[in-house]
Design brief:
This protein is α/β, with parallel strands linked by helices. It has helices spanning 13-25, 36-42, 64-75, 90-99, 111-123, and strands at residues 5-9, 29-33, 50-54, 80-85, 103-106. The two termini are 17 Å apart.
């Protein structure tokens, strides 16, 4: 697995582009997807060190990001996971923790904070 390869999944193209640009300038190799099916097609064991997903991947899909990260946990157990949300709820947070999501960040988190979380996850081996 490339320790510098990241998948960013968000239905807002501007967020994907900004995150991709920032993380690539930080030395990461970044792919992005705008919907669940596109992200699932990119997933393969060992392909990504980190997957960052928005909780809501469309107006119709309030928890697509959780489903994606559940699939990552099942099929790519060495991949670290970050859930972004602007619509956090106690239920979503509890489910993310129960699933073993590595980090939960408010979508308002700055790019610098997201990159710092990614670097922190990659510097510590999964228990």
């Amino acid at each position: 697995m490339s320790t510098r390869r990241i998948l960013v999944v968000d239905d807002e193209e501007s967020i994907c582009l900004a995150m991709k640009d920032y993380l690539e300038h930080g030395g990461f190799d970044v792919d992005s997807a705008h919907e669940l099916e596109e992200a699932e097609a990119l997933l393969a064991p060992g392909r990504y060190a980190v997957v960052i997903a928005d909780l809501r991947l469309s107006a119709r899909d309030a928890a697509g990001g959780l489903r994606l990260l559940r699939r990552v946990r099942e099929t790519c157990p060495g991949t670290r996971t970050v859930l972004l949300t602007a619509y956090g709820s106690p239920e979503a947070e509890a489910e993310a923790k129960r699933m073993g999501v590595d980090a939960l960040l408010a979508k308002a988190a700055g790019l610098r904070e997201v990159a710092g979380v990614v670097r922190g996850l990659l510097s510590h081996a999964r228990a």
